[in-house]
């Protein structure tokens, strides 16, 4: 009988899921990755396939989820995550946040597993207060284009709390703020891969609106550490994990121009509907409950990420269709 703890990670072939797989392999877990590859890429986890303590299921978690054997933990990270992805596949996005979460909570209940869900700063919508503490209920347009993602995630949180309260399932909720790093998809439409991809191809950088909207970017290693600590805490209410270093998108574009040395400029395109005007995490809870705060500065994190994108095969850099 295998003595290792067993963890199911959904969205394993995606950006965050693949980094979580690496972390739990490093901690000597038996990792079961699950993904339907709708926005993920097997190249993110191919280095794990030869390991005896890693297995992969190609499965859509919006359908009934079966995993043989014992299960100690479930991390539910399957979901399209970038605005252009979830606008392209809105129904699947709603389903994976709602039906997928329900299936996995059912699995957690059946197996006696602890489950952590990947929620998001998008539950705060276009926030009226800045920074956003966990107590803020948000300002979401349920029928706007982003509603398919935001409401799926709000439902996901509600369903998770209900399983905790009514079925006694051990649950954790992380509200993730914009995170970046190696293994993001160059063409996923999020601002960082968009800007770096454009710089590498010698195209102008497409700033939406006047660039006065803000975001706060967290390097992936910091996020993974925060998630790891939250999973092993005893705190079932939502916790923000993100880097409070807030910047306007215009300034961010200028940083990318400097970093990449491109001679391109920022050009302004229309601001998407309901694009949040400001976003910055209040991380008081993460600090006090988890003893966590980000360690990697934006300049360090951006350098590492740029090196990663530069090292990709040229055909991937050139491939921009969404
Ligand atoms: P990603 O697109 O790189 O990864 C998501 C993965 O989920 C992909 O591999 C995709 O194929 C898989 N997937 C989607 N629907 C599925 C389904 N029905 N069944 C099985 N697999 C499915 O995105 P990411 O940035 O790694 O995001 C991972 C999670 O973190 C998502 O739940 C996202 O909402 C959340 N999140 C991410 C960020 C961020 O900044 N990266 C911010 C907030 C929340
Ligand atoms: N954005 C931009 N140009 C792009 C892609 C995004 O100016 O090519 C802006 C977008 O309008 C938003 C910010 O960058 O204000 C962050 O967008 P992203 O899609 O990365 O994440 P989210 O809006 O979910 O925070």
UniProtKB/TrEMBL annotation:
Membrane-topology descriptor: Single-pass type II membrane protein
Gene Ontology MF terms in the entry: NAD+ binding; UDP-glucuronate decarboxylase activity
GO CC, alphabetical: cytoplasm
Known cofactor(s): NAD(+)
GO biological process: D-xylose metabolic process; UDP-D-xylose biosynthetic process
Pathway involvement of the protein, from the record: Nucleotide-sugar biosynthesis; UDP-alpha-D-xylose biosynthesis; UDP-alpha-D-xylose from UDP-alpha-D-glucuronate: step 1/1
Coiled coil stretches, renumbered: none
Subcellular location per the Swiss-Prot or TrEMBL entry: Golgi apparatus, Golgi stack membrane
Cleavable signal peptide: none
Keyword field: Decarboxylase, Glycoprotein, Golgi apparatus, Lyase, Membrane, NAD, Signal-anchor, Transmembrane, Transmembrane helix
EC top class named in words: lyase
InterPro entries (alphabetical): NAD(P)-bd_dom, NAD(P)-bd_dom_sf, UXS-like
Entry EC number(s): 4.1.1.35
Domain NAD(P)-binding: 8-304
Family: Belongs to the NAD(P)-dependent epimerase/dehydratase family. UDP-glucuronic acid decarboxylase subfamily.
PANTHER family: UDP-GLUCURONIC ACID DECARBOXYLASE 1, UDP-GLUCURONIC ACID DECARBOXYLASE-RELATED
Protein name as annotated: UDP-glucuronate decarboxylase
